[in-house]
Design goal:
Number of strands: 16
Radius of gyration: 22 Å
Shape: elongated
Order of helices and strands: EHEEEHEEEHEEHEEHEHEEEE
Distance between the termini: 17 Å
Strand content: 25-35%
Number of helices: 6
CATH architecture of the largest domain: 2-Layer Sandwich
């Protein structure tokens, strides 16, 4: 199968665990994902299969959306509910308007220190490996962008939130840093990703649903329609003659499109065969080819 499946990742599995399960369900090795989710997090995990694993390069900096719960009153070493408390617990009753005012300070481009338990490297070693050994973890701050952060409601020491962030933003760090600003400590109690790039929760399927579809031979029905992929690039349908040329990596003339540099090239309605790069005029080179000789 060559396609994109939006999996609703359950809590307790790593993103790599999900990829391995999809490999077993589909019976194919060429499977990858478009953006890691923490094991405790749930939600949208786009999975690419077959030749379309080559699409991953276009999703390295994708915008992501989340909803979740932050617990105030104490911080943890992992910045989420799976870690050990690093501050003494204290009773907290949140003021919604005060919290919203503090959260507003986090919107835009800010400096953020990744969690000690993260995949960031220190002298070539993943930070979480050092943290698990109780070794000192000192990470440098990085610039991230929080495009929207809305505190929806409060309930005792917890608040519900939704957020839209640029790639590389750690929601665990957002929760931790909010706790610092509020002067009481905080950690991420739960997190659900609701969107990655053009993929959203409404089109997500559980691993159980995928397994059932595989048994029934209907997996293709769960896949995202190829023409919905990379919506920033226009679609063009190649003639049979051009499909043969693209198959051998040769440049072809395609119908005039407004002057976009990159286009999605299809054979028929559903088969994505290449990402074409404009050379001049209507002449495009198939820089990435998804069909084999």
């Amino acid at each position: 199968m060559n396609g994109v499946l939006v999996i609703d990742k359950p809590a307790g599995l790593t993103s790599h665990d999900v990829v391995n399960r999809v490999r077993r369900i589909l019976g194919q090795k060429s499977v990858g994902h478009l953006g890691t989710l923490d094991p405790s997090a749930t939600g949208v995990l786009p999975v690419v299969t077959g030749s379309l694993t080559r699409l991953a390069q276009f999703y390295l900096h994708s915008e992501k959306s989340y909803e979740g719960v932050i617990h105030f009153g104490f911080a943890t070493d992992t910045y989420d509910a799976d870690g050990d408390a690093t501050t003494a617990a204290r009773p907290i009753v949140l003021d919604l308007e005060q919290l919203r005012a503090v959260a507003a300070e986090f919107q835009g481009k800010i400096q953020q220190v990744p969690p000690p338990y993260s995949a960031k490297k220190i002298a070539g070693v993943r930070a979480y490996k050092l943290a698990r050994k109780k070794q000192e973890v000192t990470l440098q701050s990085i610039e991230v962008e929080i495009k929207a952060l809305e505190i929806l409601s409060t309930d005792g020491p917890c608040c519900d939130f939704c957020a839209r962030v640029a790639s590389g933003t750690y929601m665990r760090s957002v929760a931790h840093d909010l706790g610092v600003k509020m002067g009481c400590g905080a950690h991420l109690k739960s997190l659900r990703r609701t969107a990655v790039a053009e993929f959203c929760a409404e089109e997500a399927h559980t691993l159980e649903e995928l397994a059932q579809a595989a048994q029934q031979g209907t997996v293709e029905e769960l896949a995202v329609h190829p023409r919905k992929l990379l919506p920033q690039f226009p679609c063009v349908t190649a003639t049979d003659e051009n499909v043969a040329l693209i198959r051998s990596g040769r440049a072809v003339n395609l119908p005039e499109l407004s002057r976009e540099r990159l286009v999605k090239v299809f054979s028929g309605q559903r088969e994505l065969i290449a990402i074409g790069t404009r050379i001049a005029g209507t002449l495009f080179h198939p820089g990435i080819v998804f069909i084999q000789n």
